Each structure stands twice: as structure tokens, then as C-alpha cells.
Automatic annotation (TrEMBL):
InterPro entries: Homeodomain-like_sf (IPR009057), HTH-type_TetR-like_transc_reg (IPR050109), HTH_TetR (IPR001647)
Signal peptide boundaries: none
Protein name in UniProt: TetR/AcrR family transcriptional regulator
DNA-binding region(s) from the entry: 37-56
Length: 214
């Protein structure tokens, strides 16, 4: 995967890091996580394999950084798209559709919940990388919740405990939907991905409103 871009000036560590992340993202999009290869990434970034390992100790750590990058971009995308939403259901559909794109590349490979819980991973990932990834994931949750609450006063009045439970429920549903629509199970059921997503959004919002009224 030879790069046609001019080689980054020697000693510019920040630019070199950007080169590596760009090459990693390109390799990931083309080959998928299972075939992500550090040598290929090094070639794409026009650095030696040894140099690459001074930035990332493993492909898992590189993947975690790329995942954090993508989630940070997702937050910006969601904030922009949700600003024009008219209903909480529309917000959840927007969030789901954006998240499906992320999950297809990243969501199956690294469980953020495991990182939050401090569970041991197969490969060591630097604490700073874990922290950045967890922070980005929480910002995704917060952005979605803020957009929904802005449009539905009954949800906006949730207590802190209710809000935390609601966010967990909504996100568990999003992950389940993403897993369903990206796999073969979707072929077992009639209807389109959009229909399923819109129905799930209506059910979630109706349920949350009911809880608040109760």
C-alpha cells in the first residue's frame, strides 16, 4: 500500500502520527480488523515497522486510537444532524443510522464496556488510549441524550438515576440493532432497516415517556 503523498519531514512527530493514523484508517477500511497488518500500515505511512512500534505497541492499540478518532467525529456529526430534528424519535433514528456506520467497522472488535469495567484485554492498551476511547464513547451518549431531552420535556425531567438507566437502555438497543442489521439475522425478518429503526425509536420514546409519567 505505497503512499503517493510526500514523505513527512524527519523529526515531525505529530505529522508522522497523523500519517500513521491515516494509513491505519485506510487499511482498516480496505482489509477489516482481522486483516489489519502493522507492516501494511507502516508502508502506507512511509515509516519503518520499528518506527511504527514507537507510536503503537500493537495493532489493538492502533485500532483503539482509530476507534476513538471515529467516535469523536461521530459526536460532531450527531450534533450537527440532530440540531435539525423535530422529534425525539427522529433524533434516535439519526443517532442509530450514524452509529450503524461506526459499528460496521469498529463495534464488533473492541468492547468499550470491558474497558470501562477495567476488564483484562488480550492485548495491552495504554491507559491514556483507553481513557480517550471511554471519554469519546461517553460523549456520544451525552450528545444523544441532550438532543432527545431538548425535544421532550418529560424526558428532560428525569432524575440522574433515571437518566443513567435510560442511556444504558437506549445504547443497548442501538448496539443490538447495529449487530442485527450488519449480520445475516436481518435476512430472517421482513421489512427494511429503516422501518425497524424507526419502530425501535418510537417504542423507546414511548416507554421513556411512560416511565416519567408513572
Amino acid at each position: 500500500m505505497a503512499s503517493r503523498r510526500p514523505k513527512t519531514k524527519w523529526g515531525d512527530r505529530e505529522a508522522r502520527l497523523r500519517d500513521i493514523c491515516r494509513a491505519g484508517a485506510e487499511a482498516l477500511a480496505k482489509e477489516g480488523y482481522a486483516n489489519l497488518n502493522m507492516r501494511t500500515v507502516a508502508e502506507g505511512a512511509r515509516v519503518s515497522l520499528g518506527t511504527l512500534y514507537t507510536y503503537f505497541t500493537s495493532k489493538e492499540e492502533l485500532f483503539a486510537v482509530l476507534y476513538a478518532d471515529r467516535l469523536e467525529h461521530l459526536v460532531a456529526e450527531m450534533a450537527l444532524s440532530c440540531a435539525g430534528a423535530k422529534t425525539p424519535q427522529e433524533v434516535l433514528v439519526i443517532v442509530a443510522e450514524r452509529y450503524f456506520e461506526v459499528y460496521a467497522v469498529f463495534g464488533r472488535e473492541l468492547n468499550i464496556v470491558s474497558l470501562v469495567a477495567g476488564e483484562e484485554l488480550e492485548a495491552e492498551i495504554a491507559p491514556a488510549v483507553v481513557g480517550r476511547l471511554v471519554s469519546a464513547a461517553r460523549q456520544v451518549f451525552a450528545t444523544a441524550w441532550t438532543a432527545v431531552a431538548r425535544l421532550d420535556p418529560s424526558i428532560a425531567d428525569f432524575s440522574e438515576a433515571q437518566r443513567l438507566l435510560a442511556v444504558r437502555l437506549v445504547w443497548a438497543t442501538m448496539v443490538g440493532l447495529a449487530d442485527h442489521v450488519s449480520g445475516v439475522r436481518q435476512r430472517l425478518h421482513a421489512g427494511t432497516r429503516r422501518e425497524l429503526t424507526e419502530f425501535a425509536a418510537r417504542v423507546l420514546v414511548a416507554g421513556l415517556e411512560s416511565v416519567r409519567r408513572g
